[in-house]
Amino acid sequence: MNTGTLIGSLIFAAVLVVAIGLVFGLMMRGWRRRARQQAELIGDLPGVPDEVGAAAGTLRGIYVGCTVSPAWNNRITAGDLGYRSTAVLTRYPAGMLLKRTAAQPIWMPHESITAVRTERAMAGKVAGRDSILAIRWRLPSGVEIDIGFRADNRDDYHCWLEGWLEPRTEDVA
To answer: Where exactly are the transmembrane stretches of this chain (predicted)?
Structure first.
């Protein structure tokens, strides 16, 4: 290789590295801007109450992510909602609790849950037919979001889908 070819190759490599760095920088800038916009839209999530009752069911699996309802691919990036993690979903009479690894737990009050269904894709994750448990609920800000959860044992989904909006004892009395 002669000197001219070597210098040309080094210049090309340097331009390529700068271009790749620029693309990644623009992607990160877009992610942060989207997170700021969504943080204003979402507001604060409800905290876990002191009394939730006895657990009615538990699923272990992966928290897939959150999307702004009804778009399955409009992923929420605000706070720690945009990161997948292992999680445990527990159903209580007062609502559902999603405990995520290395992230804040998500409490979904019973009266805020509007639908529980299965999906094949959510938040950029295509997992197969009826493999993601999607929980649609209304935030205190009024925005509806879907939370995606993929259980280790998807045979237990039928228990979560049937009668999820049954009246609680305190609602009937």
So the answer is: 6-27
